Amino acid sequence: MIATPDDTLGLALNGIRGGHMQVKPDGPHWFKITGKCPISRDIHSIKVRVADFYAFKVLDDINVAFRNYTPDEREFLISGTSPKGWDKAFPKEDDE
Q1: What is the pLDDT of residue 10?
Q2: Which DSSP letter does residue 90 get?
Q3: Residue 52 CB contacts under 8 Å (≥ 6 apart), including other chains
Q4: Residue 66 vs residues 9, 52, 76: alpha-carbon distances, Å
Q5: What is the pLDDT of residues 15-36, one digit of tens each?
Q6: Residue 27: left (phi > 0), alpha (psi -120 to 50), or beta?
Q7: Are 37 and 82 contacting, i.e. CB atoms less than 8 angstroms apart?
Q8: Is residue 46 part of a domain?
Q9: Residue 95 falls within a domain, yes or no?
Q10: Is residue 14, in this structure, part of any structural domain at all?
Q11: Alpha-helical regions (H) of 1-95
Q12: C-alpha–C-alpha distance, residues 90 and 87, integer Å
């Protein structure tokens, strides 16, 4: 399956569901998803397999469709929050 930009219309999960991310083909089997983190304000991107992206569209369950992705990657798809933004919002406490 070769992805085209028209394939992604209407599929942007505040995360990709909210339409606040850009989804573009990145080779024949990948999409590059880019968005601005609402916390860090940095631009963040991840690559997802086209098949996984469409599985999400059909299943509407991010934990199933993107089960092979890291929790940070899934959080970015759900909320648009990058790992840097997550660390800023929820700093780790020192164990001292």
Answers
A1: 39
A2: S
A3: 65, 66, 68, 69
A4: 20, 6, 12
A5: 666 667 889 999 999 999 999 9
A6: left
A7: yes
A8: yes
A9: no
A10: yes
A11: 50-59, 62-65, 71-79, 83-89
A12: 5
Q: What are phi and psi of 21, to 5 degrees?
A: -130, 155
The verdict on residue 55 lying in a domain is yes
Range of the domain at 57: 5-89
Q: Please give the single-letter amino acid code of residue 29.
A: H
Q: How many domains does the chain have?
A: 1
Residue 19 vs residues 71, 88, 96: alpha-carbon distances, Å: 21, 23, 42
Question: Rounded to an integer, what distance in angstroms lies between the CA atom of residue 96 and that of residue 18?
Answer: 40
Using a cut of 0.85, tell me whether the model's pTM lies above it: no
pLDDT over threshold 90, residue 11: no
Q: How many CB atoms lie within 10 A of CB 78?
A: 17
Pair 76, 44: CB distance under 8 Å: yes
Residue identified by tokens 């369950």 is 61
Q: How far apart are CA 77 and CA 25, in angstroms?
A: 16
